[in-house]
Every structure is written in structure tokens, then in C-alpha cells.
Specification:
Elements lengths: L1 E6 L5 E4 L6 E3 L26 H10 L3 E4 L23 E3 L4 E3 L5 H11 L2 E6 L6 H12 L5 H8 L10 E4 L14 H18 L4 E4 L12 H10 L5 E8 L6 H5 L1 H22 L7 E9 L16 E2 L10 H16 L4 E7 L8 E3 L5 E3 L3 H10 L3 E3 L2 E3 L2 E4 L3 E4 L1 E7 L4 E7 L6 E6 L8 E7 L19 E2 L4 E3 L2 E6 L3 E7 L1
Parallel strand pairs: 1-22, 3-4, 3-13, 4-7, 6-12, 7-8, 8-9, 9-10, 10-11, 11-13
Antiparallel strand pairs: 1-17, 2-16, 5-6, 14-15, 16-20, 18-19, 20-21, 21-27, 22-26, 23-24, 23-27, 25-26
Helix pairs in contact: 3-4, 3-5, 5-6, 6-8, 8-9, 9-10
The chain binds alpha-L-arabinofuranose.
Length: 499
């Protein structure tokens, strides 16, 4: 059996854990909101029409900050349509996803839903069809306590306390030709800077996210970030990153190394942001908000997609069903986010329910966990205190896309009482025997050792077979004299908690 060695240095601290790294994303898209989190006729629905079985799963998933309401949807969103008496709310066409938007769930309902899930709201403003005034109005409606036209409107609508939203996205993917009202970097940079300046005039403690590239393969990647930040650097706090991965052409080896691309993406954006900051002689460092990341089979024709020329309510769109391999890649992407947590201060798994999501639902029926649910929920639950970057000494393998890649990736976290080690084995064929020197963590027992793997790397959970894939005990994990020994099955993600 191939062997690997990992050592954990208590001093190799990346950053204290900010729970925002375990964020998620809810967009008015397909069945994420309607027939997803919201289904008034469902047996578990509460008085607002929210499915409580879904709320329970979101709590178990451990999502913290949730980005809303888009996504591409936000670039045509009129927030005023989504507040006030429900029976008076207009039905609109959503051009981004070619669907009907009934506005039955809006800003106030979504904020109430987040109270049920215990999550923080991260709001995006529309810089596609709208601009500074609409952003300021939404900010006043949401955050001003009382005594102004829009805050009093919120109170009259039944929400006496302000929503007090801290994080705001200045539009969405404004570099993408698919985006309603997309712009050049120069135009967007100027608009984002002016919008940010105006929003901070209302509240200088807001945390603002300017749009970076919608992917590292965009032709403008790098130049976009530089130009946008040259305009907006002193007014914003974060730049966004979006990345989706999928297995292409049956090349599982390369797919299992997707986090190599995420690492390259992060390093490039950090270098570009720091270049602009240094040029401006700024004392501030821009943080990264990785506010869309996931597996998405974007290239594939999905026969299940109910997209056609009709304008439909809550069509089935982007309902990818994930495999064991997808979950292992997702777990590795989380490891990468944690290893870069000094700069990636916030992240959102895109999305949460039904739409490229860890949670699936059927109207009137069940809600269940996709394979990708497990690495996310375990990492969110076990990662505590500070992130430590381990030293990894492992074999390598060849990939067509990324060249020579380590067979193992790992990260550790620790606080006063507990530590955790998260590992992936990217080998398609070999189990790996890994020793992890955890002496400096001062741990003396294993409290949990779980793994996600299966003989069939393409096994999935479906409506018919909702529990086909789940976590297994990581058999044979031993902690002895400060050395943890584990055997990682091929194509697996594992977590070991220590006390
Ligand atoms: O998450 C799905 C879509 O992906 C979002 O609406 C958009 O921002 C991105 O292109």
C-alpha cells in the first residue's frame, strides 16, 4: 500500500476561522426558493409557507452566511416588488432564467427564514438594470431603524426590527455576456465605486463585495480584477470569485485535482489585488469572497431541465445529481478554501436547495441529502478555532489538465478543546496509509473518524434511493504517541476529530 506522511505544526496558522467560510447561496432560480425552501401546501410548512424539513437539513448542513437573491436573477430584480402584502405583489418575467417570478418570497420573508436556519443574510444589489438609487433604497429599507419613508414602510410591512445586513454584493458577474446589463471592467469599476461610496455614506461599517471574474477561464480574467479594483479599491472590502467544476470527457484523474485550479484562481486574484493596493500605496488588503463555488455539470445537456420558450413557474433547472466523486472533489475544494482562509474570508456554496444543491426536495414529498451534503456538513461542524496548514509528504500522479499532482491533500483546525484533520485521497486505484504527526495538537484520543467513499465512485442519492451514499466509519484509525495512522480508501474524503 502506498504511504504518505503529514505533520502538523501548531505555529503554521493560516487564520482564525471565520464562520462565513461555510456560507451558501439561495437564488430565485428553478426550484431553489419555490418548491424548495418555500412550499405553502407541504405537510411541514410553517405559517410563512417555509418547509421545516428543509430548515432542519439546512441547520444540519451548517450553512452560515447565505447570499441572496442572486446570481444572475439579481440583475433584473426590483426589490420593491418583493415586499408588502403578498396578494398585491406583481408577477414578473425573470430574463436570467426565463421563468415567472411571483414575488411570494421576498426580502422580509427570506430574512425570517434565515432566523429559522440560524444564518446571516448577505444581500446582492442590482447593478444590471438598476443602480445607485435602488441600492440605497434597499439599504434604507433593510437597515435603517425607523423614522424614514422606507424604514417605516418595512415596519408597516410587519418587520419592526431592521435586518441589519452587514455584507452586500455590488451586482453579480458583471463581466459575463449572459448577465442582464453586463459591462466593461471600466464601466463596472466606476459604477461599483460610486455605489459603494454612496452605501458607505449611509453606513461606513458595511462590508462590500465588488464583482471579480465569473470564472478563471474568462478572457478578461486578471485584467477585469485589476481595472475594477483600480476604480473601487478604497471603497470596497472584498472581491468575489466564482468557480464551478465538473468531470469532463471521462478524465476522473484531472477532475479529482480540481482544487489545483481553485488554488491558482485564489493566488492570481490575491496577487492582482495586492498589485493594485501596492500601486495605490494603500494600507488595506482586499479580502476574497468566494461567493459561488461548487460542482456544476454545465456542459451537459440536461434532459430534466424544463427550459423552453414558455414562461414557467419554478421549472426544474440545474438539478444536478451528485456522485461520490463529486463529493470528494467538493470536500477537497473546502480544504483549499480553508488553506487560503487568510485571504478568502467568506465563501458560499452555490447553491442550497434543488439547484446544483446539497439538499433536494420533491413537491409534497421528501427532502434528502445529496452526496455533497456530507463533506460540507462535517467540515462546518468540526472545524473550530484556527486553521493550520500541514506539511504533506506524499506520492504524486499525472493528470492531463494539471500535470503532476499530489495524491493527498489535507488541512487541520484546532482550538483549546478539539482538533480536526480533513484529508482526501485522489488516487483512483490505491488505498493510502497516512501517518499524521499531531504531537503539537496535544490530543490524546480520536472522537470521530468518518469517510466518504464507495466501491462505485459514481453512486448517487436519488428520490428513489435517498440513502444510497452516506458517511462510513473510517475503520482502523489509531492515535498512538502523538501519531495518527489512517488508511484512506481510493477516491475518498475523510475527517478525523481529536480531543
Ligand atoms: O449559480 C448559478 C449561476 O451561476 C448564478 O446565477 C450565476 O451568478 C452563475 O453564473
Amino acid at each position: 500500500m502506498t504511504k504518505a506522511r503529514i505533520s502538523i505544526d501548531r505555529e503554521a496558522v493560516v487564520a482564525p476561522i471565520n464562520r462565513r467560510i461555510f456560507g451558501s447561496f439561495v437564488e430565485h432560480l428553478g426550484r431553489c426558493v419555490y418548491d424548495g425552501i418555500y412550499e405553502p401546501g407541504h405537510p411541514t410548512a410553517n405559517e410563512d409557507g417555509f418547509r421545516m424539513d428543509v430548515v432542519e437539513l439546512v441547520r444540519e448542513l451548517g450553512s452560515t452566511t447565505i447570499r441572496y437573491p442572486g446570481g444572475n436573477f439579481v440583475s433584473g430584480f426590483r426589490w420593491e416588488d418583493s415586499v408588502g402584502p403578498r396578494e398585491k405583489r406583481p408577477v414578473r418575467r425573470d430574463l436570467a432564467w426565463h421563468a415567472l417570478e411571483t414575488n411570494q418570497v421576498g426580502v422580509d420573508e427570506f430574512a425570517r427564514w434565515l432566523k429559522l436556519t440560524g444564518s446571516e443574510l448577505m444581500m446582492a444589489v442590482n447593478l444590471g438594470t438598476r443602480g445607485i438609487e435602488a441600492a440605497l433604497d434597499l439599504l434604507e429599507y433593510c437597515n435603517h431603524p425607523s423614522g424614514t419613508a422606507l424604514s417605516d414602510q418595512r415596519i408597516a410591512n410587519g418587520t419592526p426590527e431592521p435586518h441589519d445586513i452587514r455584507m452586500w454584493c455590488l451586482g453579480n458577474e458583471m463581466d459575463g455576456p449572459w448577465q442582464t446589463g453586463y459591462m466593461t471592467a471600466d464601466d463596472y469599476g466606476k459604477l461599483a465605486a460610486r455605489t459603494a461610496q454612496a452605501m458607505k455614506a449611509a453606513d461606513k461599517s458595511l462590508e462590500l463585495v465588488v464583482c471579480g471574474s465569473s470564472g478563471s477561464s474568462m478572457p478578461t480574467f486578471g485584467d477585469w480584477e485589476r481595472t475594477v479594483l483600480e476604480h473601487s479599491y478604497e471603497h470596497v472590502d472584498y472581491i468575489s470569485c466564482h468557480a464551478y467544476y465538473q468531470e469532463r470527457g471521462g478524465d476522473l484523474d484531472s477532475y479529482l485535482a480540481s482544487s489545483v485550479d481553485m488554488q491558482y484562481f485564489i493566488e492570481t486574484v490575491v496577487a492582482t489585488a495586492d498589485h493594485v493596493g501596492n500601486k495605490l500605496k494603500s494600507k488595506k488588503k482586499i479580502k476574497l469572497s468566494f461567493d459561488e463555488w461548487n460542482i456544476w455539470y454545465l456542459d451537459e445537456h440536461r434532459e430534466s431541465d424544463e427550459v423552453n420558450d414558455e414562461w414557467r413557474y419554478a421549472p426544474r433547472q440545474l438539478e444536478d445529481v451528485y456522485s461520490v466523486a463529486d463529493a470528494v472533489v467538493l470536500g477537497n475544494l473546502m480544504i483549499t478554501l480553508l488553506k487560503n482562509h487568510d485571504r478568502v474570508a467568506s465563501a458560499s456554496l452555490a447553491q442550497l436547495v434543488n439547484v446544483i444543491a446539497p439538499i433536494m426536495t420533491e413537491p409534497g414529498g421528501d427532502a434528502w441529502r445529496q452526496t455533497t451534503f456530507f463533506p460540507f456538513s462535517v467540515t462546518s461542524r468540526l472545524a473550530r478555532g484556527e486553521v493550520l496548514k500541514p506539511r504533506i509528504d506524499a506520492g504524486t500522479y499525472e493528470t492531463a489538465v494539471y500535470g503532476t499532482v499530489s495524491l493527498v491533500d489535507a488541512v487541520a483546525t484546532t482550538d483549546e478543546e478539539s482538533s480536526a484533520v480533513f484529508l482526501v485521497n485522489r488516487s483512483r486505484t490505491e488505498s493510502l496509509s497516512v501517518t499524521v504527526d499531531v504531537t503539537e495538537l496535544g490530543a490524546d484520543r480520536i472522537t470521530e473518524a468518518v469517510t466518504l467513499w464507495d466501491d462505485d465512485v459514481y453512486a448517487k442519492n436519488t428520490l428513489q434511493d435517498q440513502n444510497r451514499v452516506g458517511l462510513k466509519q473510517l475503520e482502523g484509525a489509531v492515535l498512538d504517541g502523538g501519531v495518527l495512522t489512517v488508511t484512506l480508501p481510493p477516491v475518498s474524503w475523510s475527517a478525523i476529530a481529536l480531543a
